[in-house]
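Board notes, transcribed. Complex of a protein with S-adenosylmethionine.
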Amino acid sequence: MQSITDILYKHKTDKVGHHSYGPIYEEYFNQLRDQKIRICEIGIDKGYSINAWLEIFPHGEVVGIDRKVDQKVIDYYNNVPRCSAIKSNAYTISTWSDLGEFDIIIDDGSHKPNHQTWVAGLLMNRCKILIIEDINIKFLKRVTGVKWSRPGKVFNMANHDSQDNIIAVW
Ligand SMILES: C[S@@+](CC[C@H](N)C(=O)[O-])C[C@H]1O[C@@H](n2cnc3c(N)ncnc32)[C@H](O)[C@@H]1O
């Protein structure tokens, strides 16, 4: 089986190469690869990561949300088996009202701190693993009081009383 990193690279996502998220996704997703998981990514753009998740999780259901993406892209993914695409602002509760729960939610949308805060607060209870990509480390320092400097470091905000993981990456 090809590694998650290789598949993310093959499908031209910037999660590897530009960013170094491969090992983080390996660590958290490897044990789920043969399962019937539900994964949702905020930010479809050209569909690179949707294509990668469909291959990484061959039994999984993949949902993409994007506010601006071309309607042709939305129509295309709504005709791909195990996949659906929604054209909507992801940072509003009405978008999520009929979507149910997910195993994994990834925020690769606007990368704005106020949206990332919204995601951390409101989507944490919708999934088992919540990944927020491209965290602004100056913002993180402001809210945590800690100087986070190593690129690619995982900031795991898991609440030890719950099973939920929030993983912020940059
Ligand atoms: C970095 S691209 C996503 C790349 C994609 N996840 C991949 O790895 O191939 C960010 C996308 O987020 C979308 N976006 C920005 N603000 C958004 C919002 N408020 N709601 C939904 N999508 C948003 C943009 O339209 C853009 O297509």
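Confidence is low (pLDDT under 50) at residues 157-164. The pocket of S-adenosylmethionine is lined by residues 13, 15, 41-45, 48-49, 65-69, 89-91, 108-110 (CB under 6 Å).
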